[in-house]
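INFO  loader      accepted 1 record
INFO  loader      residues=64
INFO  predictor   begin
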Amino acid sequence: MGLGDKIKNKAQEVSGKVKESVGDATDNEKLQAEGVKDQAAASAKQAGESVKDAAKDVKNDLTN
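INFO  predictor   done
INFO  writer      dumping tokens
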């Protein structure tokens, strides 16, 4: 995973946490749900990138 992707995913995760917290504090269920959704999306992207990295490592191990 490239550094740029890591930064984008982390930014989305942090943004989601902020939205969720603000939604909780203001009793705004829609904003809270958006925050949870953003965090889940960021986590899914990070997991996908980790799988790609692992596959790349296996490929490199097999060719060396």
